[in-house]
Specification:
285 residues; mainly alpha; 2 domains; two-stranded antiparallel sheet; globular
């Protein structure tokens, strides 16, 4: 069987599998423990940033603190979505990228330099605008396709943050909703695909999983598989009686990023190993 054929079989099988009971239990425990601050949704999840570090970035959203502030402050997902909404209402597409990028970098010192280079490119605003049109007219995967390789220095780990917040800000009509896909989340999906493939007897499963769920450069098809799986898993959690809010695949993305579920060992729909993880505030990939 060729590598692509193996990948297709693994994708199909992965999409059939529900989260095992142990994963549902641990995600429920996280929601009433470390994740309790997000029990109503992921909007309260915040990342620390230092406004003064971004002094060279223009335009600067009004929703972010004045750059005279030199101490770390928290930036919530809700505040980022508000900043994106205000920017897009005035067709300020470069500004719409700033808050998601700042949120994604957190305290990373190299973030301002990279963002300045991205914003300086003449094609950036137009590419973001095209992605916004695609999101509203066709959905998240089409928007991903519009940005894939469109802006030098803006890879999927960051432009999916932009798409996620744009989706929240504009309440795009299509499903599945846009979600963040970064290196940490992709590695969990890689482990899941590897375990699924191994369980059904595909000896090349680990190698193929590493190929399809690499550390970056994911194809639009890979993003679609990710969105479909996350949406189905979140629906399962919302029906599991653990208090998981409905229509919250982004809360599952946050939990996966934080290491609450880590596929380990052989498992079937009835059982699996999980790895607990602590709070992670910085988003990068």
């Amino acid at each position: 069987m060729r590598r692509q054929e193996v990948a297709d079989v693994m994708d199909a099988e992965s999409l059939k599998r529900r989260l095992p009971d142990s994963a549902v239990r641990d995600l429920g425990e996280w929601l009433v423990g470390v994740g309790a601050r997000c029990a109503a949704g992921a909007g309260t999840h915040a990342v620390d940033y230092v406004p003064a570090h971004w002094s060279g970035i223009e335009p600067w959203p009004d929703r972010l603190l004045d750059r005279s502030h030199a101490q770390p402050v928290a930036l919530s997902r809700t505040r980022v979505a508000e900043a994106v909404r205000e920017a897009t209402e005035h067709a300020e597409w470069s500004e719409a990228l700033v808050a998601p990028y700042v949120w994604g970098q957190g305290r990373n010192g190299y973030g301002p330099h990279r963002l300045k280079e991205i914003l300086a490119q003449p094609s950036t605003a137009d590419a973001l605008n095209r992605a916004g049109i695609a999101l509203r007219s066709e959905g998240a995967v089409a928007a991903y396709r519009a940005l894939h390789g469109a802006v030098k220095g803006l890879g999927p780990a960051f432009f999916t943050k932009f798409l996620y917040f744009l989706d929240l800000a504009t309440d795009a009509p299509h499903t599945p909703r846009a979600l963040i896909l970064d290196q940490r989340v992709a590695r969990v999906m890689r482990d899941h695909a590897s375990r699924v493939g191994t369980d059904i007897g595909l000896t090349s499963a680990p190698a193929v999983a590493t190929w399809i769920w690499s550390d970056g450069g994911w194809t639009p098809h890979r993003y679609e598989v990710y969105l479909r799986w996350m949406t189905a898993a979140a629906d399962q959690l919302a029906s599991a009686g653990i208090g998981w809010p409905r229509s919250s695949p982004d809360l599952l993305e946050l939990a996966v990023f934080n290491g609450v579920w880590k596929p380990a060992g052989s498992w079937s729909p009835d059982g699996s190993g999980v790895r607990h993880g602590g709070r992670v505030r910085r988003r990068h990939g």
